């Protein structure tokens, strides 16, 4: 069966009816996005990978009783966010702070990873510098909206803020990015 043409409702019906191939397809479809999102929280690759595995394992075990009302992607991002925060909180109590170095948070996110890969292009280097001016929460909101392509309602639910507050957060983030880039261009032309 070709799962690529299915919408989330159809895919979820197959998964909840014990279709392992549909479940595998959903893992293939979303695990890379979850991994990139997880790197935003920590540079500890194993913690991110374990969290992804745990979320999918839990979903498979609860497939008969779970009702995904919105999208599978939204469900997975929400469950993954809770799982990785839970794991990191537990590690904070047990492990040294190496897992939580701010440099890793900046270097590891998908958004910045793309920019670093194209580091030869000066405008991308400027954008990377501008992104560093955003708070963690701003980077998370921008990532979820523009890279994970979640809608404002989904993101606001995940982050625990109102849609209006999310609009403001993203608006301010974009404003900071524009100002940082403008300053960078002005500095270079002098």
From TrEMBL:
InterPro entries: RNA_pol_sigma-70-like, RNA_pol_sigma-70_dom, RNA_pol_sigma70_r2, RNA_pol_sigma70_r4_t2, RNA_pol_sigma_r2, RNA_pol_sigma_r3/r4-like, WH-like_DNA-bd_sf
Domain RNA polymerase sigma-70 region: start-end pairs: 28-92
An example Gene Ontology molecular-function term: DNA binding
GO biological process terms on file: DNA-templated transcription initiation
Keywords of this entry: Sigma factor, Transcription, Transcription regulation
Coiled coil: none
Domain of life: Bacteria
Domain RNA polymerase sigma factor 70 region 4 type intervals: 125-175
CDD domains: Sigma70_r4
Protein family per UniProt: Belongs to the sigma-70 factor family. ECF subfamily.
Protein name: RNA polymerase sigma factor, sigma-70 family
């Amino acid at each position: 069966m070709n799962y690529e043409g299915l919408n989330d409702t159809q895919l979820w019906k197959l998964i909840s009816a014990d279709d392992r191939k549909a479940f595998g397809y959903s893992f293939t479809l979303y695990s890379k996005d979850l991994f990139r999102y997880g790197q935003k929280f920590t540079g500890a690759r194993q913690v991110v990978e374990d969290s992804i595995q745990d979320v999918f394992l839990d979903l498979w075990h609860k497939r008969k009783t779970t009702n995904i009302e919105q999208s599978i992607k939204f469900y997975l991002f929400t469950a993954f966010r809770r799982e990785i925060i839970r794991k990191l909180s537990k590690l904070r109590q047990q492990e040294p702070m190496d897992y939580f170095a701010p440099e890793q948070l900046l270097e590891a996110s998908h958004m910045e990873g793309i920019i670093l890969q194209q580091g030869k292009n000066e405008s991308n280097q400027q954008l990377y510098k501008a992104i560093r001016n955003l708070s963690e929460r701003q980077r998370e909101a921008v990532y979820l909206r523009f890279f994970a392509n979640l809608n404002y309602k989904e993101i606001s639910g995940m982050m625990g803020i109102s849609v209006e507050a999310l609009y403001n957060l993203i608006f301010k983030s974009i404003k900071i990015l524009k100002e940082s880039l403008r300053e960078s261009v002005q500095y270079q032309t002098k």
